[in-house]
């Protein structure tokens, strides 16, 4: 019963956080508010819940990473694959070595392998935290795509390095060749499993639909289970379940492009996933906040382990580690940028201009850590094989949790200041692509309407032919609007076109609202049944949502 109460309290905290962010007089990232509410639940009301890392990884990470992989822009992902891979893998190894050596120098009582484990678990950025911070700062779209891609892939590399470091502590041995082969298997097999699960399930599902018909509820449930299946199957063969979930999401986006899913199901599925994303994201950070009071209580013991008596040394450690992580990230980004510019120059490509220094610094500050770091560090074993306590375990957990908080606070404060007033070149590519898509799709629609009209009027009497022609004309008018807008030529005032478009949307919205209110009134009076009312109102809602896009 206690567990149910805790779950309900966390859900209430997630709901409350959404409103608190809006009513607070100052701007705060949503994860920080949720962490604070989790700390209140655990500290004030004594309703905390012990985090089980294995359950956490299985329950929360697969669907969230699957959804992030599904929705990340694929064009940007593959366009900047070089920069993403450099950050997701190269930077992780660079951080593990650099930060691990510095932590060992700063805290000599902590074994070197343990220092490498701490550096490894704080190296991956969190996609949820990165997205939350980005919503409060005007991050350029291309930079955001790189950060999202990095955060999706570096979880696997960071966790693999973490497991190798922990294994070195437990066994006292480490083999670079074995580690490299294992890492290659973990990455490649994880990606392959994710792609195979998505394609296999989707193919089988389409076969069932063709043979027995489509069942929306079952199809929705299967879609929700895909990330869990990919994760569990990958973990069963000692591959990366995280990369499998990400690969499954990326593959799902290509499956969706086949267009074999109905529009109504896509709308329903989007609503379900949006709700799950908000709930799971919130619960992750509320859980993180619930762990803080217990971690802080062990701070005194932690200080004795480090060889210092003053608690202020903990703050020194945290500040130095965070500064080191930002510095290493900044150095890696700068070196990577210089190397890419040099390579482009040697290939005879356009030299171009180096990005603004504020963009480079923002990329370094935007490396936000999150719940994945805490869940990973809590998997540290309690004892070594000989029965002795795991060295500096509480200290490692405290430092990892503190790094999460400082990175969130630092990014939420620094990013808006760094990017404030930054003049970015206007990117008209998206607008041109949208106009092209609307124009070509409208032409295809007109052609499709004409083909269907010819089929319908074939071998029909005069009255039916006239009816079908009138219907085709009415439908064609809906698509002619886009073509007329694009064919007005360069002499048309863009502001006039924009005002006309705004007027159309407002008038159309007014008509939809009036139509919907009338349906509600008829239902209340008993003129039409609830079933008919729900069906008609749902059609209006779908139309309204399409008009708002």
TrEMBL record:
Q: Which InterPro entries match?
A: Cation/H_exchanger_CPA1, Cation/H_exchanger_CPA1_bac, Cation/H_exchanger_TM, NaH_exchanger
Where is this gene product found?
A: Cell inner membrane; Cell membrane
Where does the sequence pass through the membrane? 6-24, 31-49, 55-72, 84-105, 111-135, 156-177, 183-204, 216-234, 240-259, 271-292, 312-335, 356-383, 395-415
- Ranges where the Cation/H+ exchanger transmembrane domain occurs: 15-420
One Pfam entry for this protein is: Na_H_Exchanger
Q: How does it sit in the membrane?
A: Multi-pass membrane protein
**Single GO term (MF):** sodium:proton antiporter activity
**Where mainly located?**
membrane
UniProt keywords (A-Z) are: Antiport, Cell inner membrane, Cell membrane, Ion transport, Membrane, Sodium, Sodium transport, Transmembrane, Transmembrane helix, Transport
Biological processes per GO annotation: regulation of intracellular pH; sodium ion import across plasma membrane
GO cellular component terms given for this protein: plasma membrane
| Family statement | Belongs to the monovalent cation:proton antiporter 1 (CPA1) transporter (TC 2.A.36) family.
What NCBIfam families does UniProt report for this protein, alphabetically?
A: a_cpa1
| Function statement | Na(+)/H(+) antiporter that extrudes sodium in exchange for external protons.
> Could you tell me what this protein is called?
Na+/H+ antiporter
